[in-house]
Amino acid sequence: MKISKKDALLWFRFFAMLPEEEELLPRQQEILYATFAQIEAAVEHRDALLAAEIPGRQSLSDRTYFTGDPAKFPKGCRSCLLGTGLSAIRKTNKCNLNCKFCYYYGQIDRMPPVGEGMWEIGGTKFYARDLDLLLSIYPKPSGISYVYLEPFMEIEEYYPVIRKFHEAGIYQHMYTNGTLATEENLRALGEAGLDELRFDLAATHCSDKVIDAMATAKRFIPMVGIETPMSPEFEQEFLAKKDKILQSGIDFMNCAELHLNENNLPNFLGENLYLARQGYLSPIWSHEVTLRLQKLAATEGWDMVLHDCCNRTKFARDLNLRSKDGSFFGTSNYTCEFERIPYEAFLPILEDDSFAFLEEEPLPKGYRAGDIVL
Length: 374
Known about the structure:
The chain is 37% helix and 15% strand. The protein is an alpha/beta fold. It is globular.
C-alpha cells in the first residue's frame, strides 16, 4: 500500500487523538505500517544519494560502512559486528552530566545501583572474586565493554577488573564523557590493560579540555576515539574544532545515529522522525550528518576512521550476537523501545511540505476516511 502523505497525515492526526489504552484495529495497523514504510523509503533514498557522493566508502562484510584506514577501524566494533562481543559490564549508576540525547535523560538520579562491590555481567551480579569462576565456565567473549553512565565517577574500582580480563586475553573498551579524565587515571587504565577508550564528545560540546584528554589517552591506551550521537549541533561544534581534534591523534569516530526512547523523546518533539524497521526511532537528520562528515573526511583525507554506526548497523549487530549464542534463525533483540507508538511524534514530518514520499497511490476501499476500518 503506497499511502499518500496527505492520507497518512489525516490518519495520524486521528491516531494521535485516541486514548492511550485504545489499540488500533487490523486495517488501521496496515495504514500505520504503510506510513512508516513510506517515510523510511524516502529517508533511505535521501541517504543513498548522500552516500553515493562519498569517495572510497568501505563495507565491513556488508554489516556497516566506514571511511579511512581499515587498520584504525575500532576493534570493539569488529567484536560487536563479527565476533561474540559486545558483552556489556555495568558498574557505575551515576553521571556528572545531563545530556538531552541520553537514554536515561530525566532518570539519572533514579538509576538503580548495581550493588556494593558488585558488577553486572550478562544480567547476573558478580563480585570481582567471582571472575575466575566465570572465566573457567563460559567461553571467552571476543570483547567486552564498560557501559552504564560515567565510569570515571569511580574509575579506581575498574582497574583490577580490567587487569583480570586483560590477563584472560579479552579485548576491552570503555565509554566516557571525558570530563573527569586525568593523566593519572588514563595512565592507570592503560597499565591495567584497557584496549580502547571512547569519548562522547557531544556531551561537552567539543570542549577543549576533553579534546586534550583524548590526546593524553592516546599516549597510554592503544585505540582511542569518539563515539557520539550525530546532530546538526554537534556537526557545527566538531567542524569548529576539527583541526585540534584531528591533531589529537585519535584513531576513529563512531558516528552513532541518535535513537530515541520515552526518556529523551520529549527533547526532540517537533523534529522530523522516522521508525527504522519498526524498531529504533530517530531524527532523519542524524544519519545525514554522518554521511556529510564521511564525505568531508574522505575528500580531505582525515587520518582517522569514520564509522557509520547507523540503525542498519545496530540491526546487523543484534543479528550477529544472537546468531553466536545459538538463538533461533532470525532472532534479534532489535525492537521498538516504546510500549505505545507515539503517533503525535510523526505529525511534523507528515506536515513538512519539503519531505516527499517517493510514490503514492489512492487508498483502497475500506481504508479511506469515512470508511469503517476494521
